[in-house]
């Protein structure tokens, strides 16, 4: 963990969630891992020394499904680390904003590009050779949009193989909080996202009050 923490800055990226917090990081040249010099995003879990350890372990293992996923519309996982204290996930860093932050200002052409790219990413997950992967957390808050309006699906904490018991992480986008994972759930959730893109409305048609 000391090696991973050496790459961390104190600058957070986005808000904390049930897993932890994302920080900016930097991997220097000539590092011992044989990685090229690059800026990265490092997701650091909350402490494992709590009654939430089992949930943190589940979310960490779900994120590791990204190891077998390579697609231009899905965030890239560069590496990971597990210690007695915390879990660490290292992702590619890019100039991008959350779809939820820009959805109301997109032109139709930009919105269509986001729709097409997100559909391509979901189709890749649902056709994964190891079995259909269900994201279970599709919403505008889990889609990054680059400066070129290329969407990147992020946050795989609840990703499971179709048919497994899952927790749906985006209230207002899935019909139930938990159940057996189905690609139909992702498709329904993305349909709501697409509706928001078309109408330029930042709120889901099925939004629920916290």
Kindly report the name of the CATH homologous superfamily of the largest domain: Transferase(Phosphotransferase) domain 1
- Estimated structural class: alpha+beta
Oligomer: single chain
Strand content: 25-35%
SSE string: HEEEHEEEHHEEEEEEH
CATH topology of the largest domain: Transferase(Phosphotransferase), domain 1
Task: Report the mean per-residue pLDDT as an integer.
Answer: 89
Could you tell me the number of beta strands?
12
**Number of helices, counting only DSSP H or I runs of 4 residues or more:** 5
How many angstroms does the end-to-end distance come to?
36 Å
Q: Any low-confidence stretches, pLDDT <50, length ≥5?
A: none
Q: What is the CATH-assigned architecture of the largest domain?
A: Orthogonal Bundle
CATH class group of the largest domain: Mainly Alpha
Radius of gyration: 17 Å
Shape: globular
Strand order of the largest sheet: 1-2-3-5-4
Number of domains: 2
Helix content: 25-40%
Biggest sheet statistics: 5 strands, antiparallel
Protein name: Protein kinase domain-containing protein
Pfam families: Pkinase
InterPro entries: Kinase-like_dom_sf (IPR011009), Prot_kinase_dom (IPR000719)
Domain Protein kinase: 8-210
């Amino acid at each position: 963990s000391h090696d991973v923490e050496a790459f961390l800055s104190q600058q957070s990226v986005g808000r904390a969630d049930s897993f932890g917090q994302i920080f900016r990081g930097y991997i220097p040249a000539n590092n011992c891992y044989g990685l090229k010099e690059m800026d990265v995003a490092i997701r650091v879990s909350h402490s494992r020394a709590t009654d939430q350890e089992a949930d943190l372990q589940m979310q960490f293992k779900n994120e590791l499904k990204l190891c077998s996923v390579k697609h231009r519309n899905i965030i890239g996982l560069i590496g990971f680390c597990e210690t007695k204290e915390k879990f660490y996930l290292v992702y590619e860093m890019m100039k991008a904003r959350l779809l939820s932050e820009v959805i109301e200002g997109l032109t139709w052409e930009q919105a269509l590009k986001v729709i097409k790219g997100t559909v391509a990413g979901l189709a890749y997950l649902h056709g994964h050779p190891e079995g259909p992967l269900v994201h279970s957390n599709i919403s505008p808050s889990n889609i990054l949009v680059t400066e070129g309006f290329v969407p990147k699906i992020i946050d795989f904490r609840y990703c499971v193989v179709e048919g497994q018991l899952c927790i749906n992480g985006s209230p207002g986008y899935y019909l139930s909080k938990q159940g057996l994972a189905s690609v139909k759930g992702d498709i329904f959730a993305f349909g709501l996202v697409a509706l928001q893109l078309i109408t330029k409305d930042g709120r889901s048609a099925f939004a629920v009050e916290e």
